[in-house]
Fold:
Amino acid sequence: MAQKQTKLEKIRNCIRTIPDFPIPGIQFRDVTTLFKDAEGFRLTIDAMNDAVKDFEFDAVAGIESRGFVLAGALAYRQGKGCILMRKPGKLPAESISETYTLEYGTNTLEVHKDAIQPGQKILVIDDLLATGGTALAVAKLVERLGGEIAAFGFVVDLPALNGAATLNAYKIFSLVAFEGE
Ligand code: AMP
Structure:
């Protein structure tokens, strides 16, 4: 357990905080510094791999764009396929979309209609849970296609924004938490 704490501390210490980005008052938790750290990135994927061992799922979905980095590596480790939840206008085949409110502004996400088959259980991965609006939009996309959310997984939780309450219908896990917004 003490060793695990150390690993999570290493992950947490690799995340850089940029104050007032993209707007004043937001403490941006920048995971690019975690992704570029070979040990930090490996520990992150290993910790996510451990965290999902009790979940049953058919595929891993990543949320554009930092979620793609995590979902791709985790899907490979798990021997599963990887589904992309993309920003609007990027997907070439027939897609569905959901628009939602973000911690700062609004956003839209899209997924190919044939990316998920009815009854498939989907593990959804993103870098950070803030209000939970992004994750909830992904849940709607998955469910509109007849899929089920197996769980949501994040590297970072911002408990002050209470995303866990927004996602209370679903299983969630996160590796580290930061105070504030
Ligand atoms: P939310 O929908 O409010 O849970 O916001 C989560 C999404 O916005 C994730 O895709 C994050 O990458 C991004 N995000 C929101 N707040 C922050 C923050 N303080 N630092 C870094 N990324 C954030």
